[in-house]
Sequence to fold (610 residues):
Amino acid sequence: MITAHLPALQVVVPLVAAPVCVLLRRSRGAWMVAMAVSLFAVAGAWSLLAGVLSRGPTSYLLGSWAAPWGIEYRVDETNAWVILVVSVISAAALLFARRSVEREVETDRIHLFYTAWLLCLAGLLGMAVTADAFNVFVFLEISSLSSYVLVSLGARRQALAAAFRYLVLGTVGATFFLIGVGLLYQVTGTLNMADLAARLSELGPHRTVTTAFGFLAVGIAVKSAVYPLHTWLPNAYAFAPSAVSVFLAGTATKVSLYLLLRFLFTVFGLEFVAGGPVPLLLALTGIAGLVAASVAAVRQEDAKRLLGFSSVAQIGYLVLGVSLLTTAGVAAALIHLFNHALMKAALFVCLGAIAYRVGSVRIADLAGIGRRMPWTASALVVGGLSLIGVPLTAGFVGKWYLVAAALESGWWPAAAAMLLASLIAVAYVWKLVESAYFRAPSPAAASVREAPVSMVAAAWGLAGANLWFGIDASLPIDVANRAAAALLGG
Amino acid sequence: MEAFLGHYNYWIVVALMMAGLCTVATSGNLVKKVIGLNLFQTSVFLFFISVGKMAGGTAPIVAEGWTRYSNPLPHVLILTAIVVGVATTALGLALIVRINRAYSTIEDEEIRRADLHRLP
Fold:
């Protein structure tokens, strides 16, 4: 009975829980509500994914209004996977968040912090689950507006400037998306994705459709921080509260990239996309992002900002995988999407734990952390190795499939760029490791203790997942292959 | 000429959109950036509204003497987008108030300079 309504509950539960947090006015209570909702979302996502894998895609009609007039929620392999990633990262980030937020956010604002968190979660899950183009815009704005608020709650004043910048660029991106949806509606008279796909393929080449595609693609690229539209990301991640960096780095750009896949393959279709300059443009932005953002990461002095640039580079990998337009490329992108969420969340949790004890994440202030906070620092190393793509870590699996897919399509420059960026990743991860293990403790770090148990648990839970999925990657590979086959075949 | 005048609604939309985006990109004052953003969003509202309008059509309520009706769906959609726009403006202005308190300025360049020597 209740499982039939799971697609809607994924969105409705966090949406209803958000005002409950406002009414509670207690920071601990709000945290418990947010955690309970996230765990419910994880259980729901797992059940949805298991259902899709055994019985195929399911469709849910909101209020029983028949599609394409009503809003349809549709769960297939691809978005069941994305929903699972988002809810797992939210739960892991919340485990870390309780102590961290108590330190970094003013006490009387903490319940509002978790309210914004739940709204952001509702928006992200909604973007993933809905099959209605305008509904995507609504959820996109729900998640964006709440993430501007979350970023602005950072302790330093730069957080305000970063949040404002994020707001301006994010709104321009979302409005571009809205223009694209409007143009599509103008041509086809429908907003349902499956219906759009059917009518667009009947229509054939059409100038308005091409224009719509341009607006949609640029809008989504801004939201997913595809180079060179990434400028909002490094500062937003660097100055946001630690817990928010964990949450956003693992989820926000991932869901936007899912939208890119959805619009490229489900709505416009492989034939339309392959015919234009899109694959080349995607490949060029991917390669440029890989190299430029990796180089920028090496030059950072703030560890969170370094990871922000590294995220832009990793998005380059994903875009490059998608640009191949092959099942292997898209599957590799989906595998790496999951792995990148795991490794970035693990690394940001470690930096958050260090910020909690040391009070700074400047690389110079990490000095000697390896001896003072052995558990946190070792998780940082595991996350770093995964980021580089060392065998036996999740990062290796994703990059292996990406390089193999690129070589299979004969795109050796793409494979070369990926290897080059991995070498640069060695340089910037080494900066962190060298400071943590091979320098005498800085005055700030000389007297610190290991981070609280909840933080170490979150860090090692995520780092352990990086190791687990580096050794046994059968689940992500299986799901990603089926999702890619469905996207490109359907 | 006919094609140009027949699509005058689109020309208004394009002009407003360009003015808005240009203000967002070139203005150094944060409040002016928000105004530009508003202008940009308003142009999209106008676009949706004019898409739904039928020349000579009336509101989509069955009434005697009317055979042509406007399409209400784009109008309903844009109602949602207007709400989103208001929320964005409110949040943007609230951030500006706090930025002004923290930096004593709302000029982009001065904010950047104030943080330059402290940037990690």
Observations:
- DSSP finds five helices and no strands in chain B.
- The two ends of chain B are 57 Å apart (CA to CA).
- Chain B touches chain A at residues 21, 24, 30, 33, 37, 40-41, 44, 47-48, 51, 73-74, 77, 80-81, 84, 87-88, 91-92, 95-96, 98-99, 102-103, 111, 115, 119-120 (CB under 8 Å).
- Chain B has a mean pLDDT of 88.
